[in-house]
Every structure is written in C-alpha cells, then in structure tokens.
C-alpha cells in the first residue's frame, strides 16, 4: 500500500510518502515564526504558497507517481483552523482527483504512532511534548481503543512556554532550542514547580523566569527554567509509569528533540528498568511521514472514513480518536 500524509496543523507544511511501512520521502517547509509568533492567517497563506512545491518534491524523492497512491492522510486536528484547512483541502482535492481514500488523522496520535513504528515499542506510556500540547498518554481499550490522557498541562504546552520565554527575553532566534543552548553554561536558581498528581502547569514558571531574565545571568535563568520544567514532566511521567505498571516509555513531539529531556527521562527509566525509546529529530518535529504512517495503518485495519468525518477540528482531543 502507498499512502501520502499531509501535515499542516501549525508552522510546518509537510508531505510524507510511505509504502508498506517504509518511509520513502518526508519533505517540509516551515514558516519563520520570528519575533511575532504565529498569526494563523499568515501561516495558512504560507502553506498555500508552498503546498505544491512540497508535494512535488516529496513525490519526486519517493520515486512514486500520483497514480500509484492508495490513500491520502491529512491532519484533522488539533491545530490552527486556517492552517488545518489548507492541508485538508489539498488532501481532499488529491483524493477526489485520484479516486482514493481520504483519511483524517489525529495529530497527537500520529506523533505517538510514528514513534512506536520506528522504535518497535508495543504498549508504552508516551510523554507527548510539543508547542501546543504536553500530555502523558497510554492506550486504553475501553470503551474503544484510544489514548487515555493520564496527565496533562493545566495551561500551556512546554514548547510554547520555552518559546514564549525566548521571545520575552529577546533571545534570537526565539526558540526553545536557543534556551537549551544558553542553559549549557548555567547554574540553578529556584523557580516555581507545579505538579498535581500527573498534571502540571507552566505559566507561573514562565512569569517568574521572565522577571528573573531582567535581574540574573541569562544562562542561569535558561538552565533553571529548563531543569525545572523538565523535572516536572519527569516526576509526572514516573508516577504514570509506576501506577500503570508499564515497562515501556517513549517521548515524542517537538520538545522530544531536546537532549536534556531525553537524558532525564532515560535516568527515570534506568532506575525502574523500563525500556525507553524515541524517534529521530526529523520525525519528532511536525512532519508528513507521521501522518502517512498512521493513515496507512488505519487503512490496513479496514478504516474507511465517512464524508462527515473528513473535516477539520481545531480542538480534536487525542482521547476522542479511535486508534487502530
Ligand atoms: Fe506536533
């Protein structure tokens, strides 16, 4: 089976091509968030302008022709409405033209599924950490097979928190990766730490770090901000692992590219003899291949979307998506 996956939920327009589980191409173009953050209409315009080129490049690299394709997957949500719309329209146009299946995919499910696909983990607890989301997930078969949310952020995603701090502190480029670089030379200073059971919150931490940025060495603030937020994620994840008697953990999503986070989660897993896995950075960032892999799996399991299912949904919660 050959499936194309289209991702457009936020700043990335990505197209992946997969054949029987093998990723043949994974192309993307990313909107430059710069100092202003993401203005949905502008990002959507960027996606419109670049969709044709990304699709063509992906197909070229895969060595496939459109006529070979069996299905088109796209991100149904969660994400920014105007951006999701571009991916959905591109996918729907293609599927209609080719007379093949259109497969709406939950973006969060796709992050976990691609990670399981490349690591071989079977039933892991998943720490899904990105700009907009921070959740601890595990498959539950009742009342239908889905990812149950064991814990999540009460306010903003950890990635948003790090990016927002970078912007407020005037770091360039204003990304969490800049915070990570500066953190390498920093020393710890106390910051607000908010974990309630398996849930956590980041805005108090963001406010305090922004205040401290005016008074302390930037390296120290970045180090403390990163250590505190990642320690919160590790504490909640460790609790989830032990309460569910799990023997596998994976982390996925944009923030799972962080070396320090993976190091800290690795220590938790070592302590409890838990198998730990993660995908490569290009598969943790938003990409089309994760949509293609998930859509192919859904089609293989006999999933066929009804016309009412093929829209977009900005707040498409991960626990409402049926997992195949
Ligand atoms: Fe994502």
Please describe what this structure looks like.
The chain is 44% helix and 21% strand. The chain is globular and about 60 Å long. It is built from ten helices and twelve strands. The model has no long low-confidence stretch (mean pLDDT 96). The protein has helices at residues 40-62, 81-98, 107-119, 158-168, 176-183, 203-213, 218-243, 259-272, 281-284, 288-300, and strands spanning 2-7, 12-19, 22-30, 71-77, 101-106, 125-129, 134-140, 146-152, 195-196, 199-200, 248-252, 275-278. The longest helix is centred in the C-terminal third of the chain and has 26 residues, at 218-243. The chain binds fe (ii) ion. Residues 107, 111, 130, 253-254, 286 line the site of fe (ii) ion (FE2).
Task: Kindly provide the name of the CATH class of the largest domain.
Answer: Alpha Beta
The description of the largest β-sheet is:
5 strands, mixed
Instruction: Show unreliable segments.
Output: none
- Attached small molecules: fe (ii) ion
Number of strands: 12
Using the alpha-carbon principal axes, give the shape. Answer: globular
- The tally of domains stands at 2
The CATH superfamily of the largest domain appears as: ATPase, nucleotide binding domain
| Assembly classification | single chain
Compact description:
The protein has ten helices and twelve strands.
List the helices and strands and how they pair.
Layout: E1 2-7, E2 12-19, E3 22-30, H1 40-62, E4 71-77, H2 81-98, E5 101-106, H3 107-119, E6 125-129, E7 134-140, E8 146-152, H4 158-168, H5 176-183, E9 195-196, E10 199-200, H6 203-213, H7 218-243, E11 248-252, H8 259-272, E12 275-278, H9 281-284, H10 288-300
Parallel strand pairs: 1-4, 4-5, 6-11, 11-12
Antiparallel strand pairs: 1-2, 2-3, 6-7, 7-8, 9-10
Bound molecules: fe (ii) ion.
């Amino acid at each position: 089976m050959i499936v194309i996956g289209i991702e457009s939920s936020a700043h990335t327009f990505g197209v992946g091509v997969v054949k029987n589980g093998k990723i043949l191409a994974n192309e993307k173009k990313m909107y430059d968030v710069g100092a202003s953050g993401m203005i949905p209409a502008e990002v959507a315009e960027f996606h419109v302008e670049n969709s044709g080129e990304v699709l063509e490049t992906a197909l070229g690299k895969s060595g496939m022709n459109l006529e070979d394709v069996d299905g088109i997957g796209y991100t149904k949500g969660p994400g920014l409405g105007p951006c999701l719309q571009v991916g959905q329209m591109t996918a729907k146009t293609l599927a209609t033209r080719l007379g093949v299946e259109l497969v709406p995919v939950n973006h969060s499910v796709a992050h976990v599924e691609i990670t399981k696909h490349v690591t071989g983990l079977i039933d892991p607890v998943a720490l899904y950490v990105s700009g907009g989301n921070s959740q601890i997930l595990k498959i539950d078969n009742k009342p239908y097979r889905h990812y149950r949310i064991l814990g999540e952020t009460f306010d903003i995603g950890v990635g948003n928190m790090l990016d927002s701090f970078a912007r407020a502190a005037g770091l360039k480029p204003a990304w969490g990766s800049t915070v990570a670089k500066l953190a390498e030379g920093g020393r710890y200073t106390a910051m607000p730490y908010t974990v309630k059971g398996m849930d956590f919150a980041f805005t108090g931490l963001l406010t305090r770090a922004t205040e401290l940025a005016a008074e302390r060495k930037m390296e120290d603030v970045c180090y403390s901000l990163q250590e505190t937020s990642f320690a919160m994620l590790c504490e909640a994840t460790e609790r989830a692992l032990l309460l569910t008697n799990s023997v596998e953990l994976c982390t996925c999503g944009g923030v799972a590219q962080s070396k320090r986070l993976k190091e800290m989660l690795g220590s938790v897993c070592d302590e409890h003899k838990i198998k730990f896995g993660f995908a490569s950075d290009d598969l943790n960032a938003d990409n089309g291949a994760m949509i293609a892999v998930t859509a192919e799996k859904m089609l293989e399991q006999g999933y066929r979307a009804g016309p009412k299912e093929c829209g977009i949904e900005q707040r498409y919660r991960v626990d409402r998506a049926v997992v195949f």
